[in-house]
């Protein structure tokens, strides 16, 4: 059997039981820091955290199916919506992100010394 779980923040850690939805995950990942303006952040037009987590789960399931075909053993997969998005506030995000291009778009915002990548925290209902 292959068991797959998608959650907002993962099954472990202090946020494991915290409720999550796409816009909140966009806020917490820092993605909103590159959309809209500092005074009026805008969410990404689609539910990108949901879509990205689903794509990672799909990819993991396919990989697990291939592995099961070779070994006969199932697997347990865990995907977090937060980890499925590039994080504009940390410099060492994996290039394997399903939307790694967005990580490149955020880089100038994070690298500018006078730009606060969390400007959305003061003007966004997700804060």
Short description, anyone?
The protein has helices at residues 22-29, 48-71, 81-84, 100-111; strands at residues 2-7, 75-80. By secondary structure, it is an alpha+beta fold.
What is the tally of helical segments? 4
Largest sheet: 2 strands, parallel
Low-confidence residue ranges = 88-102, 108-115, 117-127
CATH class: Alpha Beta
CATH homologous superfamily classification: Crotonobetainyl-coa:carnitine coa-transferase, domain 1
Report mean pLDDT, rounded to a whole number: 75
Radius of gyration: 16 Å
**Alpha carbon gap, first and last residue:** 39 Å
- Structural shape: elongated
- In the CATH hierarchy, the third-tier topology is known as Rossmann fold
Q: What count of domains describes the coordinates?
A: 1
Give me the side-by-side strand order of the main sheet. Answer: 1-2
Fraction of residues in β-strands = 5-15%
Q: Kindly name the structural category.
A: alpha+beta
- State the total count of DSSP E strands: 2
State the CATH architecture: 3-Layer(aba) Sandwich
Give an account of the 3D structure:
There is one protein chain. The chain is of the alpha+beta class. It has a single domain (2-122), classed as Rossmann fold, CATH 3.40.50. Helices cover 38% and strands 9% of the residues. It is built from four helices and two strands, in the order βααβαα. A two-stranded parallel ribbon has the order 1-2. It is elongated and about 55 Å long.
